[in-house]
Amino acid sequence: MTAALSIGVAAAAGAEVAARVAAAAEAAGLHALWVNDTPGHDALGALGAAAGETERLVLATGVLPIDRRTPDDIVAGISGLPADRLVLGIGSGQLRHGAVESVTDAAAALRARTEACVVVGALGPRMRRAGATASGGLLLSWLTPEIAAEQARHAHELAGTAHVALYVRTAVDPAAAAVLDEEARRYAGYPAYAANFARLGVEAADTVIRPAALRDRIAAYRAVADEVVLRALTASGGVDEHLRFIDAVAEAVA
Fold it and tell me: Looking at the whole model, is its pTM more than 0.70?
């Protein structure tokens, strides 16, 4: 298996960055642009800007939290986006009770109302099982290649057509190492992620790609999933750094 290779950015980077990164990613032959949806920033708006600068690039959200974005809201937000190259990643957000059932219901509602592919962001085994069987696939994150391989295999056993995408936080510039480390510390402090790291027996820092290991780690991750999303972490988040990120990735996989 050699996974499709994509890039991920934060919605907070803004529409202009998303548009320029999307155009560069398409020119470099990458598969998709994934945009993180965060409070106060709109992933779908960023994808709208990216859509206007691309023709083939898949446009994806990673992920829309259903505790603050209902299916009605999401359907309204994708108006004008090209459904044939749109992936709606959804997740439970801050839901603590009935999360699996709520995400399953949201996936069904979206699949009934749009031709876009719907995938589920999942950590634990119940959510992964639900996502694999009730949507078009899974978006996994914060995993070592070995654990990702096991989770992808299980998803494919549950649903042979399930698309398994894997988010991997990545820095290509030594100047971004501190940003990468802070991102790992931040996620390790979230209760749901902390519990998942403990369950898997890994540290957040074990699941990232650092500049010195770029080529080998990308290859290791591409061997275990259907799509690898390199979540770009840069020193300042500027567009030029994101463009250099794409150049470095293209060189690493050439």
Answer: yes
